[in-house]
Amino acid sequence: MRVLGIESSCDETAVAVLDEDRGLLAHRLHSQSEMHDRYGGVVPELASRDHIRRLLPLTRAALAEAGTGATDIDGIAYTAGPGLIGALLVGAAFGRSLAYAWGCPAVGIHHLEGHLMAPMLEPDPPAFPFLALLVSGGHTMLIRVQSFGDYRILGQSVDDAAGEAFDKTAKLLGLPYPGGAHLERLAERGRAGRIVLPRPMLDRPGFDFSFSGLKTAAARHIRGRALTDDERADLAHAFQTAIVETLVAKTLRALEETDLRMLIVAGGVGANKALRARLAASARDLGADVRYPRVQFCTDNAAMIAMAGLWRLRSGSREPLAINARARWSLAGDLRSSVA
Ligand code: KG4
Ligand code: ZN
After folding, report:
1. Are 53 and 197 within one domain?
2. Consecutive H or E run containing 264
3. CA Rg value for the chain
4. One digit per residue, pLDDT tens: the chain, 340 residues?
5. Within-domain flag for 328
6. Are residues 166 and 264 both part of a single domain?
7. Which of the ligands is closest to the CA of residue 41?
8. Which residue, judged by its Cα, is nearest atom 24 of ligand 1?
9. Domain range for residue 228?
10. At CA 37, angle to CA 10 and CA 226, rounded to 5?
């Protein structure tokens, strides 16, 4: 089976071709972040319009790179939600129309299911069941992944997502949007222990997170003062350390309190090197294995959507021709159809 994957839920337009036997044949991505940077965040209408401009050329390029024609594609997987509704509708309409024209099935994929399947693109994929730490711009969750499609949310952020906290703090530090990776680079120059920020919710039982207080504490350090370059780096370091320690502590607690011995880390914040290093070391101490997608497939991409699509299509999922997208969509329900 060969699947064309399409991602357009936010500000990345991406297309990939995945073959069941031969693996990933092509993946193409255009990031709109430069276009949105001057507004300090994603402008939904601009995002939708740009997806319309990019999807066809990216698809042509991906098919050419894969050496594949339309007749070789057995199914199409597109992100059906959650995300920006206009952006999702562009990908959904495009994916469904291609499937109609090519006479193959199409399935709408839950974006977070895509992130959860990203480690399956790597040479040594994790086996079910596993614990997933999903840390993106919109979500922070600990999930028990029992099998494909069976997701039990153990804990999540009660306010800001980890990526959102990175982005908001990066903005306070005068870094471009989205700021996670920029803040990570600045933190590398920061001195440990110069500034200490709180570790929210660590003293509370359970697996929920809270990050808005951390962002506020960072803001208090800056308010009314012009920071030197060194002070900015120290603050970035303190912020990153606090968020990483909180994520690691709750993840270890979840490993300790469940029978799970395989951990996967997914979502954009999973690209963070400090987080990866700390999790790898701590999980090893507990006798658990950790699997990450390659850094490129931590953030939004179409290869992960094609992978989730391959699993769905193999399990026999088929959907009616109606074009559907869902701005809000719980991961905990039945994801076999994107039709609300
Ligand atoms: O998964 P993703 O691409 O999009 C969503 O589905 O939200 O995640 C994007 C988020 C942004 O908040 C971005 O700042 C963050 O991931 N991010 C990082 C790093 N790279 C991306 N955060 C911390 N360190 C990084 N290296
Ligand atoms: Zn994402």
Report:
1. no
2. strand 262-266
3. 20
4. 999 999 999 999 999 999 999 999 999 999 999 999 889 889 999 999 999 999 999 999 999 999 999 999 999 999 999 999 999 999 999 999 999 999 999 999 999 999 999 999 999 999 999 999 999 999 999 999 999 999 999 999 999 999 999 999 999 999 998 999 999 999 999 999 999 999 888 888 899 999 999 999 999 998 878 899 999 999 999 999 999 999 999 999 999 999 999 999 999 999 999 999 999 999 999 999 999 999 999 999 999 999 999 999 999 888 888 888 999 999 998 898 887 6
5. no
6. yes
7. 1
8. 272
9. 128-292
10. 130
Distance between Cα 198 and ligand 2 center (Å): 27
Confidence (pTM) = 0.95
Atom of ligand 1 nearest to the CA of 137: 7
For residue 323, being part of any structural domain is answered with no
Pocket test for ligand 1, best of 188, 237, 265, 299 (most atoms within 8 A of CB): 299
Query: Does 326 reside within a domain?
Result: no
Q: What is the domain-level CATH number for residue 37?
A: 3.30.420.40
Residues with CB in 5 Å of ion ligand 2: 136, 300
Give CA–CA dist 290/284, Å, rounded: 8
Domain count, the chain: 2
Q: Are 277 and 244 in contact (CB under 8 A)?
A: no
Pocket around ligand 1 at a 6 A CB cut-off? 136-138, 163, 166-167, 178-181, 184, 267-269, 271-272, 299-300
Each residue of 225-260: b (16+ CB within 10 Å) or e? Answer: eeeeeebbbbbbbbbbbbbbbbbbebbbbbbeeeeb
- Indicate whether 61 and 15 sit together in one domain: yes
Quick one: CA dihedral 37, 43, 46, 50, positive or negative?
Answer: positive
